[in-house]
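Input:
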Amino acid sequence: MQKSWWKILSFILLLYTIIGGFLMDVPRLPILNETIRNMYFHVCMWFGMMILFIVSFVYSIKYLNTTNYKYDLFAKNFAATGTLFGVLGYATGVIWVSVTWITDQSQSLGSVLKEPKLIGAAIAILIYGAYFVLRGSFTDMDKRARVSAVYNIFAFAMLFPSIWIIPRMVGSLHPGSPGSDTGNPALDKNDMDAGMRAVFYPAVIGWTLLGVWISTLKIRMSMIQDSSLMNEQKKNEL
Amino acid sequence: MKKYLVTLMKRTLLLLLMVLVNLAAFAQQEVEMADGMRSNGKIYVVVAVCLTILIGLFVYMFTVDRRLRKIEKENIQ
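Output:
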């Protein structure tokens, strides 16, 4: 295993996330109570998803610049891991919502279903789902790579209105939405104190590195499967 | 002299035993056991469970990585 220091770093950071995340003191806030510790897990999924989608976007542009098939594999697998993180973020969010919004804040199920942040995130993930459907529908490798690279750029552009801009404009139940002090529908920075940040940012890095690791494993697997690509690489090396 | 020492030892041992018995009886009075895994609402159990999952996950990741490297080496040769 070459260049594996960041894999070990990811392991150490996640060990620290679980030990520090469960045992260190957190601010005592109404409704949230101990669930504020979900910051180290739920929110990190979305941070990780965003970073992996940015990486995928960059590789799609690189593919269009160079038409090197390797970059298409990179873009595809980073998008796949990003989507996995998004689905996990959504699933953990559902559990959190059912306790804090519906029972403890007595919101109706209707108002939760109308929640723009949730609809936006669902749209964003579905757009990335369509990316994989699109990839699967081509038999020609070059056409698949080219069209899906363009679509990936569109999907990345759609992330911003659906999960960042619209929830800010219409207001949202999500912490940090307009009406609270920060006006940022992603997270309320005032809820976190210095002690929480000391766990939160290492947690973001740890989870993201784990996502990068999973992506690189998948990339290497598909590179082996694609033996023609390996032969091409060998020719380039010689 | 030797006899005296033996009796002295016997007496100290008896005293120690009585202290220990007394301590054990004192400990039995509190029902809540304060040993590691049961403190703070048993949060350490959750930490242990999550750490087990995390360590298992990373062991798996490392084995997959190593197996993949082996296949890559075979492919290049």
